[in-house]
Design goal:
The protein has helices at 205-223, 228-232, 261-274, and strands spanning 11-15, 24-29, 32-37, 50-55, 58-62, 66-69, 75-81, 83-84, 91-96, 99-104, 116-119, 123-128, 131-136, 141-147, 149-154, 157-162, 165-170, 173-175, 182-183, 237-245, 251-258, 282-284, 287-301. By secondary structure, the chain is mainly beta. The strands form six sheets. Strands 1, 19, 20, 21, 22 and 23 form a six-stranded mixed sheet that branches. A hairpin with a 3-residue loop joins strand 5 and strand 6 (66-69). The protein is globular, with a radius of gyration of 22 Å.
Length: 302
């Protein structure tokens, strides 16, 4: 199973207003999915068991198998997949008979066959025979499938485990003498970073993550203030903050990587004022280490 590469904590903040619409989007009706326009009118007669939004003129739909339709409801890529991802880029990956591979907008296979694939915002991690490789956003090979573990990615540098050693990879070269590694995969560190040390409770990582998320959620919920101008204009959305929790548990290199400007400013303020010091840094092989954390905060008006 592909390892999770970035620790994500989803926080939803509920307030009051309206939602936005897409030109054609799926809606459940009578136990099936149809597609409607902004006026709520059904745009074609075909129905589906499951249906996703349109991206790049294609929507993933399920009846017996997954396939892709165009905006007239006709199949442009036949239904033959066990699972699919949407075409948010001009390529996507699919699952068929417990194998994974990439296809283009025409449904043509454009990669090798893998045991697993996981997407990051800039690259893909692929798995074959319990080893890992890295592909770029166009599914071109960056690192061959030869890694024993994947530790993380930060500032154009990958943290990797190969031949029994942790090291880094950048610009086509391995470096096993790099003493400043940045991890973002909570599955490979012995201790994940914790906002409160009270969350340490044995070796149950799931329980520890849940406790950590609850502590962070509580701080954010108690201190965030919905920006008045955003509220007045019905602005909703998710902000994404990326920061390093260093070996002393201090936040470094805070960067707001996505979100509406009005919401970003508030998320940045809350993080800087209330989340700047973590009580337990990440550690690996008994030593504190740097950990890259991505924190999404959702603003929603009701």
């Amino acid at each position: 199973m592909i390892q999770k590469i970035i620790a994500l904590l989803g926080i939803t903040l509920c307030f009051f207003t309206t939602t936005s619409a897409q030109d054609i989007f799926p809606k459940k009706k009578g136990g099936k999915y149809i597609y409607i326009n902004n006026e709520g009118e059904q745009v074609f007669d075909v129905t589906f068991t499951e249906a996703k939004r349109f991206y790049n003129g294609r929507a993933a739909v399920l009846n017996n198998k997954w396939g892709f339709i165009d905006k007239t409801g006709n199949y442009i890529i036949p239904e033959k997949y066990d699972d699919v991802q949407s075409f948010r880029d001009s390529i996507t990956y699919v699952e068929e008979d417990s194998t994974f591979y990439f296809i283009n907008l025409q449904g043509e296979t454009i990669s090798d066959i893998y045991d697993g694939i996981e997407k990051n915002d800039k690259f893909y991690i692929v798995e074959k025979n319990q080893t890992f490789g890295i592909l770029d956003h166009k599914a071109q090979i960056l690192i061959d499938v030869e890694l024993e573990k994947f530790g993380g990615y930060y500032k154009e540098e990958f943290t990797i485990y190969k031949d029994g050693k942790w090291g880094s990879w950048s610009e086509g070269k391995y470096n096993f003498n790099d003493s400043t590694l940045f991890y973002s995969n909570i599955e490979v560190v012995d201790q994940m970073p914790l906002f409160k040390k009270s969350c340490i409770s044995g070796e149950d990582k799931k329980a520890i993550r849940k406790c950590n998320g609850k502590e962070i959620y509580q701080i954010v919920f108690e201190n965030v203030k919905y920006p008045p101008i955003a509220r007045e204009n019905g602005i909703e959305g998710v902000t994404y903050a990326r920061f390093v929790i260093d070996k002393k548990g201090q936040i470094q290199d805070l960067e707001m990587i996505k979100g509406h400007d009005l919401l970003i400013k508030e998320s940045e303020r809350v993080i800087q004022e209330y989340l700047s010091q973590w009580e337990v840094p990440a550690s690996i092989e008994g030593e504190p280490t740097n950990f890259v954390f991505v924190l999404p905060i959702r603003y929603r008006l009701e």
